[in-house]
Amino acid sequence: MSTSARYWRGIPQRYRLEANKCKKCGQTSFPPRLVCPACGSREFEATKLPQTGTLLTYTVIRVAPSQFVDEAPYAVGVVELDGGTRITSQITDCSLDAIRIGQKMKVEFRRIRAEGLSGIICYGYKCAPVAVQ
Amino acid sequence: MRDVAIIGVGMNKWGELWEKSMRDIYVEAALLAIEDAGVDHIDSMYVGCMTSGLFVGQEHLGSLMADYLNVTPIPATRIESACASGGVALRHGFIEVGSGMSDIVLVGGVEKMCDVGGGEATYALSTAADQEYECYQGVTFPGLYALMAHRHMHLHGTTQEQLAHVAVKNHDHGSMNPLAQYPFKVTLEQVLSSVMIADPLRILDCSPITDGAAAAILCPLEMAKKFTKKPVVQIIGSGQATDTIALHTREDMSWLGATARAAEVAYKMAGVGPDDLDLVEAHDCFTIAEICVIEALGLVDRGQGGKAAESGLTALGGKIPVNVSGGLKAKGHPVGATGVAQVVEMVEQLRGEVGERQVEGARVGLTQTMGGTGGSTAVHIFRRV
Fold first, then answer.
1. Are residues A62 and A126 in the same domain?
2. Do A74 and A10 share a structural domain?
3. Judging by beta carbons within 10 Å of its beta carbon (0-12, 13-18, 19+), is residue B258 exposed, middle or buried?
4. Per-residue model confidence as pLDDT tens digits over B122-157
5. Chain A 60-89, CB below 8 Å of chain B: which residues?
């Protein structure tokens, strides 16, 4: 199902949050796109997403797809990063009962899954609540 | 465009059909539709199917189904638009007959889902979402609709009880449909105490894994009376639209923009509005989905969908009955067949043939089916001639 090429193609986004920004209208696209969804322009410059944001919605996955069965239950949410770009991400480093819409979040680099004995160990971003002072 | 009629429909009992192959399920439904229509041949065929490759390792359904229905060498085309495949297949049949390219077109839909285990089925269905930026994170389809549900609850105050009322209503309806996979009632308490799948969605908020097929025969309206003595049902509106593949890119994650757009186009073509509808078959793959769909169709105001099932508005006997067939929830959801099965229910309702779940005096109805989290949608409007 997953090949190493398919995995390494995604590394700039999954490891480093690399996005692109439209030179015409300033819209940030993650992952980078060839056509700006806001204005149709095809001229972009490289950018990186900010690593803090706000939780817009979440769920707790209790019945997982085959590759994630050992992880369940785990939380997944949509985080709007500062600047407005959104990502779907697992929510980590907190009790499943403590997750609230509107929470401040930070992006962390984590292991996503291991693909069996001889497979690639897949890394990427997860989001954790920012501790309230 | 020529006016287009549906002159025959067919569907068999849905469920876990261990003893039947995908091709046999499809051919049975197709033969029922052909018999119902009274035609002696078909000119072309569309087969709606989401992912037979992942469920049974079989692609190339145009050839397979034409072969086993014994209609080769007619053109036969498989249509894929995730869970909207059946609805989009209908649209292509409508266009082909309307254009004058063919006179008699069979539109079928099929999915054989029970040959794989639960984890594999969950994976197969998840391929309708963004593989790289949603599924990589371990999100499932119930999970994505749960994200929509929490957003809807946050923005509009929708409650778990209101979600549960959708399941109770659709099982009430489904209890009157002998072809449904789960033709029995459930109580509010049963829904609210059923096992959690992806918070806030419980197992009884989810449509099931189903084997099933459905079929319909389309022809020019002016030819319809040559074939059938039954009341003729005309397709008076068709709309199809897309939205972003990933849920998180949509400005309002609890609003189905593609469904609203497809409905707008279909209403305009049909010359009717939401108030003219006698019944609706909507894509209730999860309870929250029906709530969002009835808002996008304009049956209720935006944000007010949660109250509809609770108040009885969308129940049989209510102002606008939704999913009198039992919906995906009780009837089952063999994904590629769902959009066509909605048409089967609609045609039989508009002919007045369904018995105790009949919407009295039904003349105009709408079907809506969508793929993924609403990234594609097909809406059709029908009228008894």
1. yes
2. no
3. buried
4. 889 999 999 999 999 999 999 999 999 999 999 999
5. 60-69, 71, 74, 76-78, 86-89
CA-based torsion, A122, A123, A126, A128: positive or negative: positive
Does the model's ipTM exceed the 0.85 cut? yes
Asked if B139 and A64 come within 8 Å (Cβ–Cβ), the reply is: no
Question: Residue A112: its chain B contacts at CB < 8 A?
Answer: 136-138
Task: Give contacts of A59 with chain B, Cβ < 8 Å.
Answer: 139, 143, 146-147, 149-150, 198-201
Is the pLDDT at A3 greater than 70? The verdict is: no
CB contact under 8 A, A59 and B198: yes
CATH of the domain at A85: 2.40.50
Distance between CA B372 and CA B284 in Å, rounded?
12
The number of domains in chain A is 2
Helices (H), B38-136: 52-56, 61-68, 85-99, 118-126
The residues with which A87 forms a beta bridge, in sequence order, are: A79
Half-sphere exposure of A59 (CA within 13 A, CB side): 30
pTM score of the predicted model: 0.97
How many Cα neighbours within 13 Å face the side chain of B158? 34
Burial class (CB in 10 A: 0-12, 13-18, 19+), B205: buried
Nearest chain B CA: its distance from A41 CA (Å): 18
User: What is the span of the domain harbouring residue A58?
Assistant: 50-133
Could you give the residue ranges of the DSSP H alpha helices within B2-51?
22-37
Q: Are residues A70 and A54 in the same domain?
A: yes
pLDDT, position A119 = 78
Sort B183 into a burial class: Cβ within 10 Å, 0-12 / 13-18 / 19+: buried
The pair of three-digit structure tokens given for residue B178, joined into one six-digit string:
């002998």
Tell me whether residue B380 is one of the annotated catalytic residues: no
Half-sphere exposure of A34 (CA within 13 A, CB side): 0
pLDDT in tens, B243-254: 999 999 999 999
B58 and B105: one domain? yes
Domain that holds residue B76: 4-117+210-227
Q: Is residue B315 part of a domain?
A: yes
User: Which chain B positions have a beta carbon within 8 Å of A31's beta carbon?
Assistant: 132-133
Residues A27 and A56 in one domain: no
Cis peptide before A129 (omega within 30 of 0): no
Same domain, yes or no: B202 and B268? yes
Same domain, B248 and B223: no
Give B124's strand partners: none
Instruction: Go through B46-76 and write b for each residue having 16 or more CB atoms within 10 A of its CB, e for each that does not.
Output: bbbbbbbebbbeeeebbebbbebbebeebeb
- Cα–Cα distance list, B266 to B259, B260, B324, B365, B373 (Å): 10, 10, 21, 12, 20
CATH code of B282's domain: 3.40.47.10
